[in-house]
Design a protein that fits this description.
This protein has about 475 residues and is an alpha+beta fold. The protein has helices at about 25-35, 40-45, 60-70, 75-85, 90-95, 100-110, 110-130, 155-175, 185-210, 270-280, 295-305, 315, 375-380, 395-400, 405-410, 415-425, 440-460; strands at about 135-145, 155, 220, 225-230, 235-245, 255-260, 285-290, 305-310, 330, 335-340, 345-355, 355-365, 385-390. The strands form three sheets. Strands 1, 4, 5, 6, 7 and 8 form a six-stranded mixed sheet that branches. Bound molecules: iron/sulfur cluster. Iron/sulfur cluster binds near residues 340, 371, 378 and 384. The site of iron/sulfur cluster (SF4) has 13 residues, from helix 13.
């Protein structure tokens, strides 16, 4: 029998080139990234032969590491650094060199402008290869959980108490020198508390901003920029709203954004502007679900000259209550409404809400008194009024278009195309929760995910001759 000796030290010869097979995804990513124009990243490196300084890690390596990490479902800088020590694909990429996780984490969030440029370059390649046409673009949003617990939300008073305590603790830490701790441990502790204090100060500032519109506002002490948003399971959790614009031909992500507004209705026009800015032209057709299908968006799309396919929600079409505005008959000659009891509601000024102009009609004071339907009709108000939106030709044309089979068929394609990238990023990249805190960092992380998604698409579908030339 040959025994096992685990106490010995081994010195192995490693053929780095043979750590992974010839057709391994890491090789393809490395080659692809190497053919992109990365001059923006190189210009930021300050160390040089003339000036001296510590040699920087090649941005090509850091980009390849992150793209490969996302593609295998690794989204943490520490985990990437760990994998560089044992995972053959990561070792092949780094040439068996260690990469510090701080370097990886900083590179991911601090090179936003360069990353944006790389994303545009990849879109250019996809477009040149015929994988993006902008004939039809689907817009959809998903709620991405923030790196914060639902219990971390505080109101103004609790937040201020918390901040005062942490400030006092940081001060005491600076004065006292705990025995037994090394200088490194002490410095790490102080950094943690300092960051906590900064987060709390940010939370107080964020709360002051929110309190202007909501007196009962609360913010998370872990991620002050996250917002409580409704989740698909019906619950609420601190999240960000991630918006993807997807080209319908092959599902390439042409634009990505992260916003704090849980509602999608204000995201369609900004998405259109960003697509035009990035790709130099507008999509011919935009398709979005009922959350985006508002009168304001329909009119904005018509003004922009973009064909919009959507789904009007029930409140935009008809209401079923016997005392809803639709049940009041409009008398065009008299310019007044007749309520179900035959009383007149006369014009009483106008009002603009969410960019739409409404005319107000009001019944004379006292006329509703004694009406048997007053509670159902007026609710808590003493008399009834109703708002009539100014007629919209765009809305009428949209209604007619959406009643055709052609428009309905286009709309049915929406979920298959628009929701695929969300599902892929959540399940394959493991991005169900953001690994970073703050809106800007969240934007960077989602841009990396979109870049990885598009590079995978390019590697799968682009012919070698259409891939970037050296
Ligand atoms: S409550 Fe007033 S507006 Fe409503 S049905 Fe009665 S009379 Fe008409």
């Amino acid at each position: 029998m040959r025994g096992v000796n685990r106490e010995q030290m081994c010195w192995r010869a490693v053929d780095v080139e043979r750590l992974i097979g010839d057709d391994h995804a890491a090789r393809a990513i490395w080659e692809f990234v190497g053919r992109l124009d990365l001059s923006g990243y190189y210009e930021r490196i300050e160390a040089s032969v003339e000036e001296g300084g510590r040699p920087a890690i090649d941005p090509r390596l850091l980009i390849s590491l992150w793209v490969y990490a996302y593609s295998v479902g690794v989204g943490s800088a520490r985990e990437v650094a760990r994998r560089c020590e044992w995972d053959p694909a990561f070792q092949w990429l780094t040439g068996c060199e260690a990469v510090n996780y701080h370097t990886l984490a900083d590179f991911r969030v601090l090179r936003r402008a360069e990353l944006d440029e790389t994303f545009t370059q990849v879109l250019g390649l996809l477009s040149a290869g015929g994988l993006i046409t902008l004939d039809q673009v689907m817009q959809d949003g998903t709620k991405m959980r923030a790196l914060a617990s639902g219990k971390s939300f505080r109101r103004q008073r609790a937040l201020q108490q918390h901040l005062d305590e942490v400030r006092r603790y940081v001060r005491e830490m600076g004065e006292a020198e705990p025995e037994g701790d090394s200088a490194r441990v002490r410095a790490a502790r102080q950094r943690v508390e300092r960051e906590r204090c900064e987060r709390l100060e940010k939370a107080v500032a964020e709360l002051e901003h929110l309190a202007a519109s909501n007196k009962d506002a609360r913010v998370s002490v872990s991620d002050p920029e996250a917002r409580r948003m409704k989740q698909p399971d019906g619950g609420f959790a601190p999240s960000y709203n991630v918006q993807f614009s997807t080209d319908a031909v092959h599902g390439a992500i042409v634009e990505v954004d992260v916003v704090q507004d849980g509602n999608d209705r204000h995201q369609l026009t900004p998405a259109l502007e960003r697509i035009e800015q990035r790709l130099g032209r507008k999509p011919q057709q935009m398709v979005a679900d009922g959350d985006y299908t508002t009168r304001a968006n329909i009119e904005a799309m018509q003004t922009a000259g973009v064909d919009f396919i959507g789904s009007l929600r029930k409140e935009e079409t008809a209401e079923e209550s016997p005392f809803s505005a639709q049940q009041f008959r409009y008398d065009e000659q008299q310019n007044c409404y007749l309520c179900p009891q035959g009383k007149r509601l006369r014009p009483d000024g106008s009002q603009t809400k969410s960019g739409v102009r409404y005319r107000r009609y009001r019944i004379r004071t006292g006329e509703c008194q004694g009406c048997p339907h007053r509670t159902a009709c007026c609710g808590d108000h003493r008399s009834r009024n109703l708002m009539r939106p100014e007629p919209s030709a765009a809305l009428e044309a949209f209604r007619q278009k959406m009643s055709t089979d052609e428009a309905k068929a286009q709309y049915r394609k929406r979920s298959r195309v628009a929701e695929f990238c969300h599902a892929w990023i959540k399940s394959k990249f493991g991005l169900r929760q953001l690994p970073v805190r703050g809106l800007l960092k969240a934007k960077s992380v989602m841009l990396w995910a979109a870049l990885t998604f598009n590079i995978q698409l390019a590697l799968r579908l682009l012919k070698p001759q259409a891939q970037p030339a050296r």
